[in-house]
Amino acid sequence: MPASLIKLFIAASATAPVASGGAVTTSVLPAVFRFVATVTAPMIAGGVTTIPAAGFVNDNGDAITDLPAPPVNGYLNVYVNGMMQEANLSSLTTASLVINTIDIPVGAPVVLEVADFSNTTSTITTPPVISVPDIDIIV
Hints:
Elements (H helix, E strand, L loop, with lengths): L10 E4 L4 E2 L2 E6 L2 E8 L5 E2 L2 E5 L3 E2 L16 E7 L2 E2 L5 E3 L3 E4 L9 E8 L3 E7 L2 E2 L4 E4 L1
Antiparallel strand pairs: 1-15, 2-14, 3-13, 4-7, 4-12, 5-6, 6-11, 8-9, 8-12, 10-11
């Protein structure tokens, strides 16, 4: 009689673990700043329009000395004559806003809006309960 291969037969079934319960608390406290400036002739030079921080006023109409630093977790919008500008046209430092164009007319209003979301937190206040998978092996 020729040799034959004997194979072990194993059947298995399993249930996937199930997560239930748990709670996550998320707190979003954005810091939003808006500033307005009017372009003057001395601001337009060297192929760019540079608006110093002192050229802006805040929402209350108060003069400012420093602009907010560009946010890592946020965004900024620049509006010239009420039109939002492309992001790559401007750069912000605490000292000034530089817009990479000289085509802004003298007297045009420039609005700077800065939104910072770095004060956002998420914590698991109640850990979820995860069931143990059920595995049955039948030999």
